[in-house]
Design brief:
Blueprint: H1 3-30, H2 34-37, H3 52-58, H4 63-94, H5 100-109, H6 119-128, H7 135-159, H8 163-171, H9 176-205, H10 208-213, H11 220-230, H12 235-255
Helix pairs in contact: 1-12, 3-12, 4-7, 4-9, 4-11, 7-9, 8-9, 9-12, 11-12
């Protein structure tokens, strides 16, 4: 084994442990009985497991309405993001125009801007526009946060599909729109679906905008943060909430793992 390969394996092991260890600890704590959870020294692996902690979280005030709010906001975010990102990504991938590379760089550069700086102006603007404490307002901010990623992903998906196929369809009598709908779009659907689910995960986990822009219509991450910081929620509530938050993301990533490569324009066979 070469030194380079050993270093690669070591780095992969460290990154894997860095990602999975917190998830494993949160999962174990979420199913640990309360008396064992508060015992000191706390056992790393509990003697028994229970659903009591998770049931306590699910029966807490506001959990189910906030979960529904998170799902609705994520759905709106997907729709708004694709309405903007799909034409933009297609144009960047298919047309050559002056400043195309600069535009792509500018789209990515927007992610470098610290969103926290906009917290107060954003809240004031949304109050004036009557979007404060509404799901639409949160979805608009989530769309703005997800848009750079979605445009880059959609661009990569369309770049992975040969334009010659569209041209061949047009030479056979089809219009440009027909060539796109009947040739390009079916081939791009797996990648676009994966991009949509990726957007769902981004919106599902987002907490900053939902916290500063809502009071009575909290999403689930905002409710958990408010319960922990504002109300001092107990330890078992925090672990159960963390487990409940990560489960949808893990399930979705598992289901779309085959299509993750298509996010960057690699065709799945």
């Amino acid at each position: 084994m070469t030194l380079r390969r050993l270093g690669l394996y070591s780095a992969s092991l460290v990154i894997s442990a860095w990602v999975t260890l917190p998830l494993l600890l949160i999962t174990v704590a979420a199913f640990t009985p309360r008396d064992l959870l508060y015992r000191w020294p706390r056992p790393l692996w509990p003697e028994r497991f229970t659903l009591e902690t998770l049931r306590f979280f699910l029966r807490s005030t506001g959990v189910w309405p906030s979960t529904l709010n998170s799902v609705l906001v994520a759905g709106l975010t997907i729709v708004l993001a694709f309405v903007i990102a799909a034409p933009a990504g297609y144009a960047i991938s298919r047309f050559r125009f002056r400043g195309r590379e600069t535009l792509q760089l500018a789209i990515l550069a927007t992610k470098m801007f610290p969103a926290t700086v906009l917290s107060i102006p954003l809240a004031v603007a949304f109050i004036r526009w009557r979007l404060y404490d509404t799901l639409l307002g949160v979805a608009i901010v989530h769309t703005a946060l997800a848009l750079p990623f979605v445009i880059v992903i959609v661009t990569s998906v369309f770049l992975g599909i040969s334009y010659e196929l569209e041209e061949a369809a047009q030479t056979l009598g089809g219009s440009r729109l027909q060539a796109f709908l009947q040739v390009t779009l079916p081939m791009a659907l797996p990648g676009l679906a994966a991009a949509g689910i990726f957007t769902f995960v981004l919106s599902w986990n987002e907490v900053f905008a939902a916290t500063i822009l809502t009071l009575n219509h909290r999403t689930l991450p905002a409710l958990i943060v408010d319960s922990v910081i504002g109300a001092g929620a107990p330890l078992h509530f925090r672990f159960a909430g963390g487990f409940f938050m990560i489960i949808p993301a893990l399930i979705i990533i598992f289901l779309i793992r085959r299509y993750l490569l298509t996010l960057w324009g690699v065709t799945v066979r």
